[in-house]
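Worked example 3 (structure in, sequence out).
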């Protein structure tokens, strides 16, 4: 399917503030910066509310619109970043999200918006009926699964304002879901023009792709559990109550966000607090990997970025293992705030509970709670790449000798029938036969798992540099698209820059040109615009053909 390309995120910068802000951030983020007077979250919300009221016209806010806070970030120096979603006449606005940036005393520094097109519609009454939109979405799901006999197919349309694809228009956003012949879930979101019935966009809804325990992939790993009478539950009170349960090879039955039936998550228990055998025939072994992956992902975000939990609120999620029948997938689901893992078919994949897969999928949850990158076009590629990048960084941070860090994705779960030794490769993404190494004007037409290659390539170059080298015992070769030579700045700085760009500057419509701008802003904040790190970000993007003009 040919996709209409997303608009670039728009930035509002107040005159005379940019240079001062950069200087303040550089000074404040230096060691020893005082944080005693940092504004609280409540103060940041008050400051942002006042800024929205005072600068409504500049932000294109009108009486027909309402805003809802999605996330708040307060820097060490007191600079505040408050992220909003918008509605128009009570309808959700796709591409209506924006972030306001505030000085330590609450003044408006600027804003990043998913679109700068004013929101105005002559009517919010659709000409296309909801039932017709549902039929079109059901047809799209069948077309995306040719030859499959789909059962229990459902589709529920929601009326929205689409500001992601050019001039704002009334649209139906319809989530179609069904079960395939094995009882495993398939789902697709279809965006349809509510006036003409034309398809605007479509994307997969399920975003593809972890006590002491004997895991399948990570060896013997430590686990925090909960004592319950004379036995133990696989539940970690030190990480927000995260737990792991058995889905009993059942699946969910959901109508969009309303799930009529959920596969169970019967919590694993054990008599001696030693879990699993490291063999797939012990159902607890996969649970050990899942719980461990959750622990390691929690620890990475907390230790490195100060984020407590996927939503940043200190609350844990939960895992379901043994989902479906020979299910070759794993996914994060915002609806249950949980991770779900299939057992694989044994030929192409084994159980999909490896550390980098867990971190990849859980990072979709972080993206959902922050930039909410739309899961199609270039934004979708960046969404997938974000999960690959953090999946690799979590693996490095865990420092597990049985599953050492590398720049390959899913190397533990593939089997001989897959035909290669990993799902994706960050040093040269095209090694998988489908992913893109370099940006082109047609990149947004690729599946998001393949358009992600450009950002993965950028991330590898930024961390390690170009050319051939061996890292952690693995040989890599990463040529640039423009023949340049790039020097890396290390994985830690890559993670810091990408996380700040994701949580502070990116929006739902960010494309590759926008990602370049967001990461440069993040590097400038962290290291200064005259720093080697800032220059390296620009050089790495240029090396994958993402220049100043995209």
């Amino acid at each position: 399917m040919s996709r209409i390309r997303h608009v670039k995120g728009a930035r509002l910068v107040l005159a005379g503030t940019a240079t001062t802000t950069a200087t303040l951030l550089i000074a404040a983020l230096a060691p020893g910066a005082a944080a005693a007077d940092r504004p609280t979250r409540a103060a940041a919300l008050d400051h942002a509310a006042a800024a929205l009221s005072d600068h409504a016209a500049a932000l294109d806010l009108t009486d027909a619109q309402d805003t809802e806070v999605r996330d708040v970030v307060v820097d060490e120096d007191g600079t505040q970043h408050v992220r909003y979603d918008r509605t128009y006449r009570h309808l959700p606005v796709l591409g209506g999200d924006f972030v306001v940036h505030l000085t330590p005393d609450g003044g408006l520094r600027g804003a990043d918006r998913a679109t700068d097109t004013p929101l105005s519609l002559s009517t919010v009454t659709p000409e296309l009926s909801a039932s017709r939109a549902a039929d079109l979405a059901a047809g799209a799901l069948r077309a995306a699964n040719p030859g499959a006999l789909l059962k229990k197919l459902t589709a529920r349309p929601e009326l929205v304002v689409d500001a992601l694809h050019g001039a704002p228009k009334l649209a139906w956003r319809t989530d179609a879901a069904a079960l395939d012949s094995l009882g495993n879930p398939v789902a697709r979101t279809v965006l349809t023009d509510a006036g003409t019935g034309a398809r605007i966009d479509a994307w997969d809804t399920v975003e593809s792709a972890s006590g002491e325990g004997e895991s399948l992939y990570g060896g013997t790993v430590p686990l925090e559990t909960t004592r319950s009478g004379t036995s133990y539950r696989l539940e970690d009170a030190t990480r927000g109550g995260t737990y792991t349960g058995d889905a009993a090879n059942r699946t969910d039955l959901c109508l969009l966000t309303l799930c009529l039936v959920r596969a169970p998550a019967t919590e694993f228990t054990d008599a001696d607090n030693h879990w699993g055998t490291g063999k797939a025939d012990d159902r607890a072994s996969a649970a050990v990997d899942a719980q461990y992956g959750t622990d390691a992902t929690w620890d990475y975000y907390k230790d490195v970025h100060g984020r407590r939990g996927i939503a940043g609120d200190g609350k844990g999620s939960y895992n379901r293992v043994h989902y479906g029948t020979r299910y070759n997938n794993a996914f994060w689901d915002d609806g249950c705030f949980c991770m779900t893992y299939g057992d694989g078919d044994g030929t192409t994949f084994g159980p999909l509970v490896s550390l980098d897969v867990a971190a990849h999928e859980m990072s979709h949850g972080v993206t959902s709670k922050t930039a909410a990158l739309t899961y199609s076009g270039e934004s979708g590629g960046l969404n997938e790449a974000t999960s690959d990048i953090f999946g690799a960084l979590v693996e490095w941070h865990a420092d597990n000798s049985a599953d050492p860090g590398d720049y390959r994705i899913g190397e533990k779960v593939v089997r001989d029938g897959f035909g290669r030794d990993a799902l994706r490769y960050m040093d040269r993404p095209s090694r998988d036969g489908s992913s893109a190494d370099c940006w082109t004007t047609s990149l947004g037409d690729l599946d998001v798992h393949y358009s992600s290659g450009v950002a993965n390539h950028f991330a590898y170059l930024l961390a390690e540099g170009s050319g051939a080298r061996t890292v952690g015992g693995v040989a890599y070769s990463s040529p640039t698209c423009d023949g340049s030579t790039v020097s890396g700045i290390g994985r830690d700085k890559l993670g810091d820059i990408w996380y700040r760009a994701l949580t502070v500057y990116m929006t739902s419509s960010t494309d590759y040109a926008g990602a370049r701008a967001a990461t440069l802003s993040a590097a400038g904040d962290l290291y200064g615009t005259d720093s080697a790190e800032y220059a390296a970000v620009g050089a790495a993007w240029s090396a994958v053909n993402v220049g100043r003009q995209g």
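Notes: The chain has a mean pLDDT of 89. The longest helix spans residues 283-305.
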